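Service request form, structural biology core

Requester: graduate student, group of Dr. S.
Request type: structure prediction, single chain
Budget code: on file
Notes: please return the result as structure tokens.

Sequence provided:
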Amino acid sequence: MNNPFDLTGKTFLVTGASSGIGYETCLAISRQGGKFIAIARRSDLLIKLINESNQDNLQYKLDLSDIDNIKNLVELIPNIDGVVHCAGIVSLAPLKFYSEELMNSIRLVNFDSIVYLINQILKKKKLNKAASIVLTTSIAGLFGMKGNGIYAASKGALISISKVWANELAVNRIRVNCVSPGMVKTEITNKSIENLSIEVIQEDEKKYPLGYGEAIQVANPIIFLLSEASSWITGQNLVLDGGRTSII
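Core staff response, request fulfilled:
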């Protein structure tokens, strides 16, 4: 029988590939026989990723907050079979501490960049038919967590637009889905909670029946959404939170 998770012969562009979920997703793609185009700002970690993957993969150092960079990237890449958007910025701020700079910086990377990237990929006809787009969002986009408004808004926007794209792109059998992780042990989440006490963090983890997650526990479901195993799934948001949002 054919392996429905096999990605042999397919190439996927992954943003935020230098660490955390993006890094693990690239390695998981490679393990399933696929190739990846890794996009991130840190070239040393991108090189490390390429060396670990043991495949003929590509990597580009790129700042997604610069729209011109995205346009140039699309000119360079070959045709692809999907996109995984893992790049993101987390910054906690209560309502009265919002600023134009904060709103712009989070929106540019978390939301605007992937919207423009997909727009340009489609315009240049670089996305193959029956491709799969996976947007990494967050349970923050589904629930009201204090101090998380701007970040939550950017993630909620991704969930909403994914459903529109799923409808628009279905004619070419292109699927669009989201994964919404809870707290995952990555560099970006560690930075977001570095000002919290150990006691506060421990109390929060107790709210997760299965504890905090690991990046690979998000990467593997992403592989499912990229593969033929999910060929009848589009416009969905897969919550990956160790049971956090399913308990009272």
